[in-house]
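Why MYND-type domain-containing protein? Reviewers of the renewal asked for a concrete example.
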Amino acid sequence: MAAGSETEYKLDLDDIIAFPDAAHVPVLPPEPGESWIIFGEIVNDASVFRPVYTVRDKINCEYPVAFYTDNPNEDAKAAGCQLGRVLCITNGMRHHFVDGSNGYRIEDPSTVFALPCSMAELRALNKRLRDQSDAGELQLCSKCKKQSTQRCGKCQTAYCSKECQSADWKPGAHRFECRAIERLRIWNRTDWG
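Here is what the prediction returned.
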């Protein structure tokens, strides 16, 4: 998948190379310059001795994600793991657990993070950004649709003024979407190799 830009959004969350589902996970580690993201919604917290979550991916396959880091509880908390959030694993490789299940064993906390949204919300945000791009509206104010040169400092959403940005933040819409939009825009500009 070719990378997008600030003015062209073309991210496809169904691309099985950049975002493999359970049926398309690579069996070999990434080559230099190659990467992918495994993602799914946390649907169950099965933690007992260490953080273990059941995650449902985009084709409705469920699998465990277990933290085997030096500080598993702190690392899971720092990653933002909570029910209903989308858990993302960079360059995830399948792991066969002793109980016979297949999932992901997290040993490096820098490879995992959670987005504060559900899978449906992530897909809706992605569609909205693609629709805005297709309509040539990525450079227009998110609140009033006027031409804009200002951006949210975190996610780069366009605003024509601080007043429009504040108005969009206060009701909560942008406040809750900002981190997910930031990640989608980073992924949009990524050359997945």
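The first helix runs from residue 72 to 79. This is the kind of structural detail the renewal will allow us to pursue systematically.
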